[in-house]
Fold this protein.
Amino acid sequence: MNTDALQSQLESYFKWFHRHPELSNDEHETTARIREILTGAGVEILNIPLKTGLVARIRGARGSSAPAESKAESHSSPPDGPVVALRSDIDALPVTEISCLDYASEQSGVMHACGHDFHITALLGTALLLQAEKENLGGTIKLIFQPAEEGGGGAQQVLDTGVLDDTAEIYGLHTAAENKAGVIAVSPGPSHAAVGAFRILLRGVGGHAAYPHLCKDPIVAGAQIINAAQTIISRNTSPFDQAVLSFTHTEAGSNWNVIPPEALLEGTTRAFSVEKLTGLNEQLKHIAVHTGEVNGIAVEYEWHMNTISTNNDPALTAFVSETAKAMGYRVQPRLPGMGGEDFALYQQRIPGVFWTIGVGSPQALHHPGFIADTAALSAASRLMAALGKEALRRLGAIIL
Ligand code: NI
């Protein structure tokens, strides 16, 4: 397929996915459409227990030399040759799109504001490219269309199926709003932070707003916690450490003359190590519990880690960078950001690289005005296909 034909095919796929965003773990139509496109291209889809999302497989000359197996085979039948996984996420966000695109979201309050529609489409393009030259592949490619990246546990769901147990290397891509269309940005080491989510429930005594001395006011205590917590980063974290603490959700009361009995605070902590993240949450818990105590308020503090930080393998990062440069891409380093990415969970088990491709958006990721420049679609597909093919070639050489 020539570049123009691939590009126009991908643009039409992309517009469909952009029009039909679905939230984490609810990506049923999205999964059906991906399945339809892959099946139409003759790509095998593995029979694994995922509610949404799917994993497809392309076995090359070495990968298909095993005896013929039934169509219903599971991933547990060992493929020949090395296995390389390529990953896209597929879920959207609870964001109301403000663009005037003729293919804007048709789902009220839901939008592909993180570019996962771009990732799906790019990986479909990769599937088409690799399927067309499967005879030349020195092993097996697994294409992961992962559900629920936005905090819904999607990477863990895929790992729990065991579908990646035989995988030697993994590559994932993300759109970069700030870079021009087609520019590749990648660096070794951590690129995305470890992410914590906390929830603080304050239980006081409600009553008449005219008689606050007869109440235990959870709103005042909550405000003190929010203010005191600002010192965790500004006074207790080294300026050379990267860390973030943000309150993102507060809830208390329902009218103007009643002091409510309870208040809720939620938010996120971010750092580049599990130790640092745990430390931030211990400090926040300390402040919350003791501020509550001073105010006569019982405090329940809960937190969990959404994901660890990503960690790009240095040798494989050089491989991505060199492959892209050899194909004529502009490649630049990527500064780490405090966003989270559950691709990190794959990298904990499998060496891999999470690289980005510029889509020149007027607004940042997660903004209701985020727009991905579709001009970069076939470029993303081609690089991902090359990474899969060249990684198999290299791994095959090592095995031999
Ligand atoms: Ni994303």
Observations:
- Residues 377-399 form the longest helix (23 residues).
- Residues 64 and 80 are 7 Å apart (CA to CA).
